[in-house]
Structure formats: C-alpha cells, structure tokens
Amino acid sequence: MNSKITFRDVVKTFPLKGAAFTALGGVSLEIADQEFVTVVGPSGCGKSTLMSMAAGLQEPDSGSVLVDGTPVSGPGPDRGVIFQQYALFPWLTVRQNVEFGLKLASVPPAERRRRTDQAIDLVGLSDFADALPKTLSGGMKQRCAIARAYAVDPQVLLMDEPFGALDALTRVQLQDQLLATWSQEKRTVLFITHDVDEAVYLASRVVVMAARPGRIHRVIDVDLPYPRTEEIRLSPEFRRIRNEVWTSVYHQEVPPQAA
Amino acid sequence: MAVITPVEKTVADARQQQPRRSRHRPLLLNAVAVAAGIAVWGVVAALGLVDNLPTPTAVAQKAGTMISDGTLASDTFASLRRVFLGYALGVAVAVPVGFLMGWYPTVRALIEPYIQFFRTIPPLALIPLAVVLLGIGEVPKIAVIFLASFMSCVLSSFQGVIDVDKTLINAARVLGASDRTIFAKVVVPASTPFILVGMRIGLGASWATVVAAELIGAQEGLGYRMQKASTWFEMDAIFVSLITIGLLGLVMDRLLLLAERRLTGWQERR
Ligand SMILES: Nc1ncnc2c1ncn2[C@@H]1O[C@H](COP(=O)(O)OP(=O)(O)O)[C@@H](O)[C@H]1O
Ligand SMILES: [Mg+2]
After folding, report:
1. Which ligand is nearest to the CA of A160?
2. Same structural domain, A74 and A177
3. Mind spelling out the 3-state secondary structure of B114-165?
4. Which pLDDT belongs to residue A255?
5. Distance between CA atoms of residues B148 and B160, nearest Å
6. pLDDT in tens, B32-84
7. What is the model's pLDDT at position B270?
8. Where's the ABC transporter domain (chain A) (predicted)?
9. Does any ligand 1 atom lie closer than 6 A to the CB of residue A45?
10. What per-residue confidence (pLDDT) applies to B8?
C-alpha cells in the first residue's frame, strides 16, 4: 500500500444552535505518496476542516485519518501546514520565523543556519532575511511562511488556500515556484483552493467537494504532463479539464436540505 | 541643461528641508503653548483676577527654596518610592494572574468575580478602609497603590491572552510546539502590547493614588506637602508640589511609551 494520507468515512459535526451541524458527512479519500492533490468546492463545504484533521489540529467524530497508515494523533513535523492568513510571528524576522520549527526540533546551530538560509533562498527572500513581517508584501509573507514549512523538511505539505489573498500575477509566480520545488523534492501535497484554474494547473487530481453535508462530489484526474508550463495552461486540453471542474463546482445539484 | 539644473536643485532642496521643518514644528508649537500659558497665568495673577493665585515668579522662588533646603527632593523621593513599590508589586502579580486567567478557564472563573467587583470601586475609596485595617504607616499607602496598578494591569494581560490569534497558535503547534512553548514563544510576545497599555494606565492610576494616599497621615511626600501647605495657606508651595507631580507623571508616562515603542515595534499599524 502506498497511500500517504487516508481519510476513511470521516464524519465531523459542530454544535450549532443546540443541534449538530454536519461539516463532513463521511469523506473517504486516498492520496498517494508524492501526489499533488487539490481540493475545490463552495465555501463552507468542509475543506479546511478536512485539512486540519490531516494536520492533527482537529479530530474526526467517527472514521479515521491516517498518515503512512498510522492514525493521526496530533500535529507533527512530518506534516507542514501553510495557512491563508500567512500566520507569521510578527515579532520575529523572516529568518527567525523560518528557524522557529528547527529550534523546536533542537537542530544544532550550524545545521539550523544552513537549512534556514537554504529555505529562505529557495523562496527568493534572501535580501529580506532580517526584515520584520510588517514590512513585507502579502506575496513575500506567504513565501516566508512556505520557507518556514520547507525548513523542517516535511514529507507532506498541507496548504489551505495559500494564494487566495494574493494578486493574480503573484499567485501565478508562487504556483510555478511551488511546482518547481515539488518536482525536485516530491512531497505529498494536499492543496485547498477556491480557484478552479489553480486547482487544475497544480494537481494530478482535483477533488471537488459539495456542501451540506460536506462531502466529495467528484474526483477528476488531470492528465497533463509535468512540468506544467504556460503552454499547458493555454492548451485546449487544460481548458477542457478546467471546464469540467468548473461545471462540477458551480453546477452541483441542489442539496436536499438547502432547497 | 544649464537652465534646468538650478530648478532641479531648488526642488531637491525643498524636498530635503520639508521633513526636517515638519519634524521640529510640533515641538516648537508645544514650547510656544507652554510659554503662552505661563504668560497668561502671570497676567491673571498680577492683575489679581483670582484670589490668592501666586505669580509664576513667586512659585519659581518657592521652588528654589524647596530645592535648596532639600524638602522637594525628600518629598519626591518619598512619593516615588511608594509608587514604585506598589506599582512594581501590582504589575508583578497582575501579569501572571492575567495570564493564568486567560490560559485556564477554571482560574478565570474563580478570580473574575472578585476582579469585576473591585473594578467598580475606585482605589481612592479604599483609603479610609486601608487606614483602619493597616494603620497610617507605609503599608496602607503601598497597598492602595498596589491595588490601583493591579486592577489596571490584570484585565489587560488577561485580554492579551484571550486575543492571541488562533492561527498563530496553530502555526506554532504544527511546527511541533508544546503547550509550554506556545505559551512562552507565542502567547507572551503576542500579548505584550496589551500588557504595556495596562502598565501605562496602571502607572497613571498609581501616581494619582499616591498623592491622595499621602493626604492621610504621612510625614513626607508631595501629597503630604500640599496638604500641609494648604493648612498654612502657602499657595506657592501647593503649586510647586502640583507642578512636580505633573512633570514626574509626564516623564514616567513618556518612559513607558518609549519602552512600548521599542518592545512592540513589530506591530502592523494602520
Ligand atoms: N470550530 C467550528 N465551530 C463551529 N462550526 C464550524 C467550526 N469550524 C467549521 N465550522 C463549520 O463547518 C463548515 C465547514 O467549515 P470549513 O471547513 O472551514 O469550510 P471551507 O474551508 O470549505 O470553507 C462551515 O459551515 C463552518 O461554519
Ligand atoms: Mg476554508
């Protein structure tokens, strides 16, 4: 078995006005080692909840979430998480932010320094290593957050709408950078987005979710080769898959409770 | 070219000078306002428009005597000592208590009723009680100042912990931080701005309280000096004490503001 992340009949409810609100109603999904999977779906369909269970920040009510075949029992350095709101520590410089996880892992100073510099270099922030987050643009902040996750060298990257707040140009740059790093270091990536183009461009599989209750609506394979290029982005085949994903996101049959 | 160069130079000069002028301007205006205020005071006093109002010169002379005979220094020292003792104790207890309240809901539930109750009582109103319970020595004065600074500081550090961005805590957690690390490396720095605001308010409250506390049974101190001067009708001595209280309060506030700027310069300001 080579499933890196497994969701098996995952159910998650939240208390809502005395009743239980079903955020995820039985989700099953397997993500292979080194696979790049994106998740799209209407807001509130449980994308973030799904991801935070893989991260170990939340537990399922029933069903199980496995990483490497072992049930997730909490966060761990084998899984790097990148949040939409960057979540940089504002009182630390770029370098100190990137070092944070390495210090917790008691990596010796010389090695720490090397890995920090490497991660900062990888995202192109070397000139801003000693800057505070408040002086950075949104794109640079997210680069820093990505470097912070890379530094601890996780096998899995969990990304929750990481480029959602960025302008279109910066977003495309960061997408290409992410793919370039992924093709070298082949991590398993679970990437949440609300941007259909982004979902198709990055992934080998797009998971389309539906709301109320949160569930998997369709899984669409992206039969496009890597490395992804501008040529691919503009190809008719890309457009065909994009249209298919678009239709299944925006023209879902109305769920019974919502009518 | 020859025509353009001087124009460019003038523009550049103007650009260079403008920030410098606007930087010094508020200070200059401050000084003008203070001088004008003293002048108005002088005129009002000289014309006798307000009964018993001493002139600025009389007050300055009195200040001279009080400085040379050492009373101003010993009064100031006595008041400052009380403030610092009470204030330091208040902050030292309030910050950990606020943290515990924010971190452990049980602690919060146990302590909050007392804080909400005592919050509605101005510390000054406790002076008579403190005198009865603790006598007229240093202890009741320091106790009241302690309470004043504690009350201002405890809620702000509690609020600081409550307001820590959950995403920051999650970000630390997924990087492998334990609860203890999260507290030390995330909660404490993130709540520093709140604590410093509380400390500034607490210092103001302590300073206000010491003067009032000294009105009751003290042997020295700026408040005591004013009380005594008023029974002897020494208006100039009252003014010297008042001005000293104001100036010292201002200096202490500025020092804390400076510390605040240094410690919380990382904050995004809108
Ligand atoms: N801690 C929580 N308490 C109550 N309801 C929650 C909580 N977290 C998420 N929800 C609800 O669960 C649903 C799914 O949330 P989320 O996973 O954030 O959706 P998405 O990321 O797809 O927009 C939403 O309706 C949201 O309101
Ligand atoms: Mg979300």
Report:
1. 2
2. yes
3. HHHHHHCCCHHHHHHHHHHHHCCCHHHHHHHHHHHHHHHHHHHHHHHHHCCC
4. 56
5. 19
6. 999 999 999 999 988 888 888 899 999 999 999 999 999 999 999 999 999 99
7. 61
8. 5-232
9. yes
10. 40
Q: Is the CB of A24 under 6 A from ligand 1?
A: no
Binding site membership of A48 for ligand 1 (Cβ less than 6 Å): yes
Tally of domains within chain A: 2
Which of A49, A91, A141 to mutate to probe the B interface, most B CBs <10 Å?
Answer: A91
Query: Is A111 in the same domain as A56?
Result: no
Is A87 in contact with B165 (Cβ distance < 8 A)?
yes
The structure tokens listed for B115 are: 């804080």
Do A170 and A257 lie in one domain? The reply is: yes
| Domain range for A137 | 85-153
Residues of A in contact with B189 (CB under 8 A): 89, 91
Which among A121, A153, A185 is the end of a domain? Answer: A153
Atom of ligand 1 at shortest range from CA of A192: 21
**Ligand 1 binding pocket includes A213 (Cβ within 6 Å):** no
Confidence category of residue A37, pLDDT binned at 50, 70, 90: very high
Instruction: Write down which residue in A153, A175, A208 finishes a domain.
Output: A153
- The pLDDT tens digits for B197-245 are 999 999 999 998 888 888 777 789 999 999 889 888 889 999 999 999 9
Q: What spacing in Å lies between the alpha carbon of B13 and ligand 2's midpoint?
A: 53
Spell out a b/e string for A191-209, using b for 16 or more CB atoms within 10 Å of the CB, else e.
Answer: bbbebbbbbbbbbbbbbbb
A106 and A73 in one domain?
A: no
Asked if the structure places residue B23 within a domain, the reply is no
pLDDT band for position B136 (50/70/90)? confident
Q: What is the pLDDT of residue B171?
A: 96
Query: Do A69 and A164 fall into the same domain?
Result: yes
Residue B235's CATH number: 1.10.3720.10
Is residue A88 within 8 Å of B186, Cβ to Cβ? no
Which ligand minimizes its atom distance to the CA of A51? 1
ipTM of the complex: 0.91
Rounded to two decimals, the pTM is 0.83
- Same domain membership, residue A54 and residue A161: yes
Q: Could you give the CA distance from residue A47 to residue A43 in angstroms, rounded to a whole number?
A: 8
Is residue B86 domain-resident?
yes
Residue A51's pLDDT band, with cuts at 50, 70 and 90, is: very high
A160 and A43 in a single domain? The answer is yes
The answer as to whether B21 is a domain residue is no
Q: Look at residues A27, A24, A66 and name the one whose alpha carbon lies nearest to residue A45.
A: A24
- Residue B158 CA to residue B163 CA, distance in Å, equals 9
* A167 has pLDDT over 70: yes
Q: Does residue A197 share a domain with residue A114? A: no
Work out how many domains chain B is built from and give that number: 1
User: Distance between CA B213 and CA B187 in Å, rounded?
Assistant: 36
Whether residue B125 is contained in a domain is answered as yes
Picking from B163, B165, B174 by the largest number of A CB atoms within 10 A of its own CB, the best residue to mutate is B174
In whole angstroms, what separates CA B60 from the centre of its chain?
A: 25
Report pLDDT for B7: 40
